[in-house]
């Protein structure tokens, strides 16, 4: 494998409401920030993650290119998924060996519509979507299957919100209460960007965050075909990415519901000493389609600033942790 | 500065998006329209419900063998919806559930109309409630409903009853504003209400006595549920040992806050006006504190 490293990460100061900025307008300062941090103005490849159903318009990602300046024409791609999966595509593209840099970004505004019902539209159109199964309901089925201890989940929410309050980019959410229990990630608008480099270019950066392993695995979409108490695909992806090959200082997990944390902790075999979601994680800010990329960025940032030596990042897609991506980031190759 | 302008916007495919079903899903939906639920067999003889074109475990195409399953099934997981959304299939609270239909190896995601979350549990047996008009959609099953495990049996019979000799005599006393007791000469015990035989020795009681309408509370209960015979909630019912009696009588206690009622409290019967008295215990409105010092209780 060709070594690939993250050298820059930026995100918006996420909001729980529509500030009146379009998606390209949200993105613009974030792209500029990673350009400054990486010292790169042009990239060998650009890949983004977003969702037309969030924007309510077809090919909404095309207008996001306005925030890049895509002229003369650039080599560009898009996934209708979280930006973390765009990062995977960029990593694969860098493996080709003919380019040494890539820009990855993700963005989403969940404030403009009803996210719970937008997520119904991502379900299979024959068996699930016609029932009107919404995001909270299918998450509830998984929480029921997991049978997690309520006190443990409450503690996860409390910790996530407390960590989020110390993170200037996350929402400033109070301790949970019975009326605002926080087990579902908050409605959030935001964007994030990451710069990847490979080959000789890595030498320009004193402390890159090497991607020593990255893999994604998927399970059947239909909920009744899987054991929702576990995440076999997350375990497989973690194994393929080499999570267990060394100590893990920090894990940034794409947990949009509190019960997903124990499921993923088990799937990854995380040791008790691993700090989970020190950024607050998605329970403190969930700009859908950027949230997974932010997990990779937050984990990488801890390598970049020297506070962690080896970190795990996770991103997910589909109902009830259907599709899981795991990246291992390290200060050393 | 961002603009404060906003506008509503609808994304919709007019008339809905047309999707082909393929042979496997199409077969399932066709059977559903006919009121049957079928699964498809995989190469290793597992039955997928609802059917998929490929075995999710192996990726191999499924066989062309369809088998009828259910219609009954067992709830595996469930989650309750208190406030149905606009797009939900029912407009009243319901459960989403993973239902393993009889004969299937996988679970169907659907709705259970159980009325109340306490009616839901893993292992609950359910059956489909079919729509009268079926069109070949997963919603041709309106929902699942629990199997019948309980019925309600109305019980009602009408009677004409009489109080018997002893109670009639006691009520005559109450009509006249006195409590009548029976004194057993063998046991030397005074029973109130009046009785014609002694429950201890079994001998007939020959002597009728009047006892006082004052007495002492031996024990009591504070009742927080309304009762047509009680004037207010909470109300206190108490055992009252009338002066001169050896057995306590149950009666209401009033004219005092419930929390002040205590064992040993001295009370007196509050009678309704003489003109209103009948052959009934309602002649005694309740017992009210006399204000005397509390009595020592023997036991």
Automatic annotation (TrEMBL), chain A:
<dbReference type="GO" id="GO:0016746">
    <property type="term" value="F:acyltransferase activity"/>
</dbReference>
<dbReference type="InterPro" id="IPR016039">
    <property type="entry name" value="Thiolase-like"/>
</dbReference>
<protein>
    <submittedName>
        <fullName>Lipid-transfer protein</fullName>
    </submittedName>
</protein>
TrEMBL record, chain B:
<keyword id="KW-0238">DNA-binding</keyword>
<dbReference type="InterPro" id="IPR002878">
    <property type="entry name" value="ChsH2_C"/>
</dbReference>
<feature type="domain" description="ChsH2 C-terminal OB-fold">
    <location>
        <begin position="67"/>
        <end position="131"/>
    </location>
</feature>
<dbReference type="InterPro" id="IPR022002">
    <property type="entry name" value="ChsH2_Znr"/>
</dbReference>
<dbReference type="GO" id="GO:0003677">
    <property type="term" value="F:DNA binding"/>
</dbReference>
<protein>
    <submittedName>
        <fullName>DNA-binding protein</fullName>
    </submittedName>
</protein>
<feature type="domain" description="ChsH2 C-terminal OB-fold">
    <location>
        <begin position="209"/>
        <end position="272"/>
    </location>
</feature>
<dbReference type="Pfam" id="PF01796">
    <property type="entry name" value="OB_ChsH2_C"/>
</dbReference>
<dbReference type="InterPro" id="IPR052513">
    <property type="entry name" value="Thioester_dehydratase-like"/>
</dbReference>
<feature type="domain" description="ChsH2 rubredoxin-like zinc ribbon">
    <location>
        <begin position="172"/>
        <end position="202"/>
    </location>
</feature>
<dbReference type="Pfam" id="PF12172">
    <property type="entry name" value="zf-ChsH2"/>
</dbReference>
<dbReference type="InterPro" id="IPR012340">
    <property type="entry name" value="NA-bd_OB-fold"/>
</dbReference>
């Amino acid at each position: 494998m060709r070594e690939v490293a993250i050298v820059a990460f930026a995100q918006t100061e996420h909001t729980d409401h529509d500030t009146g900025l379009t998606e390209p307008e949200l993105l613009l300062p974030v792209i500029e920030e990673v350009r400054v941090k990486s010292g790169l103005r042009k990239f060998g490849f650009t890949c983004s993650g977003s969702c037309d159903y969030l924007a309510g318009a077809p090919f909404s990602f095309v207008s996001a290119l306005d925030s890049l300046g895509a002229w003369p024409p650039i080599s560009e791609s898009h996934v209708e998924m979280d930006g973390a999966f765009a990062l995977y595509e960029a990593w694969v593209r860098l493996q080709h060996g003919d380019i040494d840099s890539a820009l990855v970004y993700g963005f989403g505004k969940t404030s403009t519509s009803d996210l719970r019902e937008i997520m119904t539209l991502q379900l299979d159109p024959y068996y699930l979507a016609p029932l009107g199964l919404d995001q909270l309901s299918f998450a509830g089925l998984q929480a029921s299957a997991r049978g997690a201890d309520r006190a443990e989940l409450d503690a996860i929410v409390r910790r996530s919100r407390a960590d989020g309050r110390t993170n200037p980019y996350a929402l400033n959410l109070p301790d949970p209460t019975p009326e605002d229990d926080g087990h579902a990630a908050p409605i959030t608008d935001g964007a994030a960007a990451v710069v990847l480099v490979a080959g000789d270019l890595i030498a320009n950066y004193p402390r890159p965050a090497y991607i020593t392993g990255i893999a994604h695995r998927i399970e059947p979409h239909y909920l009744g075909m899987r054991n929702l108490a576990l995440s076999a695909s997350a375990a497989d992806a973690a194994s393929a990415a080499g999570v267990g090959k060394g100590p893990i200082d920090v894990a940034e997990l794409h947990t949009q519901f509190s019960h997903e944390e124990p499921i993923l902790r088990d799937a990854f075999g995380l040791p008790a000493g691993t700090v989970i979601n020190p950024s607050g994680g998605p329970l403190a800010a969930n700009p859908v389609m950027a949230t997974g990329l932010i997990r990779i960025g937050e984990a990488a940032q801890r390598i970049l600033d020297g506070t962690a030596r080896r970190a795990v990042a996770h991103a997910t897609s589909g109902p009830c942790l259907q599709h899981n991506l795991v990246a291992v980031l390290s200060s050393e190759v | 500065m961002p603009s404060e302008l906003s506008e509503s916007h609808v994304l919709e495919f007019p008339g809905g998006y047309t999707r082909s079903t393929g042979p496997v899903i199409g077969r399932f939906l066709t059977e559903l329209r006919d009121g049957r639920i079928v699964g498809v067999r995989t190469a290793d003889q597992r039955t997928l419900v609802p059917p998929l074109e490929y075995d999710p475990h192996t990726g191999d195409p499924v066989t062309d063998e369809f088998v009828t399953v259910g219609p009954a099934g067992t709830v595996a997981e469930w989650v309750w919806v208190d406030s149905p959304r606009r797009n939900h299939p029912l407009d009243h609270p319901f459960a989403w559930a993973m239902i393993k239909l009889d004969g299937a190896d996988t679970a169907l995601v659907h709705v259970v109309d159980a009325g109340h979350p306490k009616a839901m549990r893993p292992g609950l047996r359910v059956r489909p409630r079919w729509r009268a008009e079926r069109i070949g959609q997963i919603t041709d099953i309106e929902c699942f409903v629990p199997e019948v495990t309980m019925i309600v049996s109305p019980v009602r019979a009408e009677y004409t009853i009489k109080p018997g000799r002893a109670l009639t005599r006691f009520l005559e006393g109450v009509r006249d504003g006195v409590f009548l007791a029976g004194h057993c000469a063998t046991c030397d015990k005074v029973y109130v209400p009046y009785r014609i035989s002694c429950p201890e020795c079994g001998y007939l009681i020959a002597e009728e006595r009047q006892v006082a309408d004052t007495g002492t509370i031996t024990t009591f209960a504070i009742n927080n549920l309304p009762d047509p015979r009680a004037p207010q909630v909470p109300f206190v019912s108490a055992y009252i040992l009338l002066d001169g009696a050896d057995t306590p009588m149950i009666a209401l206690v009033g004219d005092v806050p419930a929390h002040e009622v205590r064992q040993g409290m001295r009370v007196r019967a509050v009678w309704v006006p003489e003109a209103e008295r009948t052959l009934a215990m309602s002649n005694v409105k309740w017992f009210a504190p006399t204000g005397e010092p509390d009595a020592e209780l023997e036991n």
